[in-house]
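Troubleshooting entry. The earlier prediction with manganese (II) ion gave an output that would not parse, so I re-checked the input for stray whitespace and re-submitted. Clean input:
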Amino acid sequence: MKAKDSDRVKKAVELAKKAHDGQFRKTGEPYIVHPLAVKKILEEWGMDEDTIIAGILHDTVEDTDLTLDDIRKEFGETVAFLVDGVTKLSTARDGMRDIDTYLPATRDNFLRLMIALGDDIRVLIIKLADRLHNLRTLSALPPEKQKKIAKETLEVFAPLADRLNMGLLRVEMADLSFKYVDPKRFTELQDLIEKYNKSAAKSLQKIEQEVASTLKKEKIKYSLSGRVKSVYSLHKKLAKHNQNMGEIYDLTALRIIVDDITTCYLTLGVIHSLYTPMNGRIKDYIAMPKQNGYQSLHTTVITKDKRIVEFQIRTKEMHEYAERGLAASFYYNEQKLTENYKKGKIEHLPTNLLWITELQMTAAKLREGKKVDLKKLKINLFADKIFVYTPKGDIIDLPKGALPLDFAYRLHSEIGDHVIGVKINGKMSNLNKKLEQGDIVEILTSKNQTPKSSWLDRIITPHARQKLLHALNFASRPAPAAAPDKSKKKRKPRKAS
Ligand code: MN
């Protein structure tokens, strides 16, 4: 957001241009277009100068002759540190994909990943900017790669943006990716939203007028804006509600932004005096912020012409933070945070992003050569989710408490139906073993295996349950002549185990 580039930034741009000279992107453009786009994104996010410079240089150490020492000499320790972090992060990720089941290597890479993350959260922010630009230009890649990058973004980067409360980024990443992962569904839902918005436009206008005049009467200063639901979040919600549009209450949402917290509650009262609030749908995220620090009052009401509308009421600061999240915090606390990083001090972040502090403390311990409990190191970035790996390094996200069969059915029902065993982190394990963050899971199958009803106790995800039930129903029909007594024997014990 700086009006003009400082001399340091100019110097970084010149250096990057020279270093990437002769390199081209898949889009056919000179490579420098990419680091410059990353620079612009970081500026829009209001990041500090060191981060912007590191963003400009983020691909030089990996892809050009420029060394970390060159960067250190020219731009100082912090920039070198950030570039190093981004480089480590991408080598670690590459490594995860290439290795097979070798645990030590994965663990090493995981350690490196964590250290890179924990050292300075700005490394992550540069990585997010890098990914965002790559997504925006994804059309230049071959379809297979597009899908892979888009999927990884949906599974890792968009949730990460959410964890950092960077709402705008999350929405853009999720929708850009979803378009590649499932183009048909994307267009379908996009049309649906558009149609709905069109049909709702008139009554929405009326509602806005009603709200406006009432707030005016109450002498409440406010600004009002509609918010468009992202295609991907609608997709996820519909999946949760059996594709029933009637259960999606926040398709139409109006945001009221006011000056202070007292006015937020006052405004909530005004809305409830105008419309009937729906039972159990008032959420006070001001008194009880979400884990990522998000604050707002939410209420769903039924309007006079029987429309269901969600209102979100918050202060300007909360709004800013909801859209830009951690980046906004940096903008406001740049000086303080940068100073503390320079001193190597671990600083508590301005919001309740305590998990970052936790990460940093672990990293600090590692740097000092102290022992760290590996279990503890597997810090869960996403409260209700774990990420596990296939032996090939594909990332699979599952809810906490998921079991090997959930994993197997997630991969494919053909795999789920034929499970005979599981190896976790290279060791034989059993189907009752809860999976943990970072596990490498290898499912062993046999063509002769058939699904068992006792498996129902070893499954926690609805998806896997549905697949298994389907397979069981199928199996309980008159068995094919092949091996009748065998299948009889297998289906007998129906008692709970
Ligand atoms: Mn890059």
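This one parsed fine. Residues 385-475 form a domain with the Ubiquitin-like (UB roll) fold (CATH 3.10.20.30).
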